[in-house]
């Protein structure tokens, strides 16, 4: 049995890496684990997308294991101001909006962007957008 979150993550990353608008901004810099130096500083080239937090909530019905899944995708930029991070967040949202991922072991019922928060990071250098997506996945 394949974890719904694991399978969904693979589908998200594949979709983002195949999207021309996203890759024009970040190339293939879509990370599950953002590269860091030995001192803990981010060593990844900006801009990039990081897969951040996951939350799974069981929502079972008769004979069906259901999961409401929330995932945060972090968009990062070091360009001055918000324009680049807004462009990146918009590209990620467009690439994934109403996605109908073909999962091989699970069934995706829906996948939608629920929230987009954009702010300046406390490091004083980075702009950061967090997109929260919600999915419902049924496991056979």
From TrEMBL:
Gene3D superfamilies: 3.30.2000.30
Record InterPro entries: Gp17-like, Viral_Tail_Comp_sf
Pfam families: Tail_completion_gp17 (PF11367)
Domain of life: Bacteria
Protein name: DUF3168 domain-containing protein
Organism from which the protein derives: Mesorhizobium alhagi CCNWXJ12-2
